[in-house]
Amino acid sequence: MIGAVAGGLLGLLALSIPVGIVLFLLGFGVDAFFSSFPLSRGLGNMVWSSSNSATLIAIPFFVLLGEILVRSGVATRTYAALDRWVSWLPGGLIHANIATATMFSATSGSSVATAATVATVAMPQAERLGYDPKLFSGAIAAGGTLGIMIPPSINLIVYGFLTQTSIPRLFLAGLVPGLALALAFMGITVLICVIRPSLGGVRRTFPIQQMLRALLDLGPIILLFGLIVGSIYRGWATPTEAAAVGVAGAFLIAALFGGINGAMLRDSLLGTVKITSMIMLIVIGASFLNFTLASAGLGREITTFMDGMGLGPLGTILVVVVLYIVLGFFIETLSLMVVTIPIIVPLVLEQGYDPIWFGILMIVLIEMALITPPVGLNLYVVQGARKSGSLNEVMLGTIPYVVMMLVMVAALIALPDIALWLPAALE
């Protein structure tokens, strides 16, 4: 059954059928061929139960928050401000790409939205200032992946919902690895540009007065992040309530910078509906597929298979890591997460691993899937913002950052406290 489901999944995705529809079709297929009961008769109840959660209301709020900041011009101001502060480093403006992605990750919750934001703002600068197109675009694609790690993260909300894990603790656990990855991305950029200065373009410095004035554009974004995340950690608001407050804060910031108008509001709301609909279709479709797979005994098959291999905890987690890396080449990230969680998480927990820690490890592996071909979404987002060049250039540019993600995976396995110490310290 495992081979049939995997083959069906890859085959349907190869036909360019929307992911949410693919999950429903696989569910019906498993029901027809592997189940002795007509499970599809409970589809209506499954659709309702998998979407009837107050936690999931946070998703459209966080999507709308990011849409308002992007479409109101706040992204352009943030990018220009960070340019003043980090472009003196070897690699110049590439660091502004990573830093801007980090800041917007702390508000939008979406990697694709973060990559699209930075790419739209940054790409016109690359050719004008003589940057290597591969490294410049690769840094944007990689920086965009931080959107699903640094809180508030839509993927962490979905993980918490599916595993009944504390979302505030997941947010805390993701903060240190997310910031560490951002610093690692900047560190590998410095190293590359020290070895090959021609790749880094122009290093620029600015008068201290300009740098201080730039803080006026950064301050509201930092304050908004503190408002959202701080209210959750202090117990003043649930993630859903904090997301609603964040939307109000984003609206005020956009108004402060003069970015509010009818067209912006219409486009923001329309974008929110589209993105949220896509996410919910995937969540509901995956819930139905997982229900049919569990009823048909796939979970028992996998458990028996893993037990037969005689692997210990470390061996099991290494197999899981390889599995996610391989599947990440072929399956869209959110789909990969929601399809595998009900099968993989119980297996991992049986080995004594912490669900918070594994959630962060999974997110790093999911981040890699965003920038590995052939279906790495961030690769196509960045390529779409370029005026020339091939997709291969973007792929090549992400290689150093994929290496840094693998280093983070190894670090999390060797030192779980990288993710767990902050939630424990603030309990």
From TrEMBL:
Broad class of where this protein is predominantly found: membrane
Keyword annotations: Cell inner membrane, Cell membrane, Membrane, Transmembrane, Transmembrane helix, Transport
Assembly description: The complex comprises the extracytoplasmic solute receptor protein and the two transmembrane proteins.
Domain of life: Bacteria
Protein name (Swiss-Prot/TrEMBL): TRAP transporter large permease protein
Its job: Part of the tripartite ATP-independent periplasmic (TRAP) transport system.
InterPro entries to which the protein is assigned, alphabetical: DctM (IPR010656), TRAP_DctM (IPR004681)
GO cellular component, one term: plasma membrane
Bilayer-spanning residue ranges: 12-34, 54-74, 135-158, 170-195, 215-236, 242-263, 275-296, 316-349, 356-381, 401-422
Signal peptide (residue range): none
Mode of membrane association: Multi-pass membrane protein
GO MF, any single term: transmembrane transporter activity
Domain TRAP C4-dicarboxylate transport system permease DctM subunit: residue ranges: 8-417
Compartments reported by the entry: Cell inner membrane
Family: Belongs to the TRAP transporter large permease family.
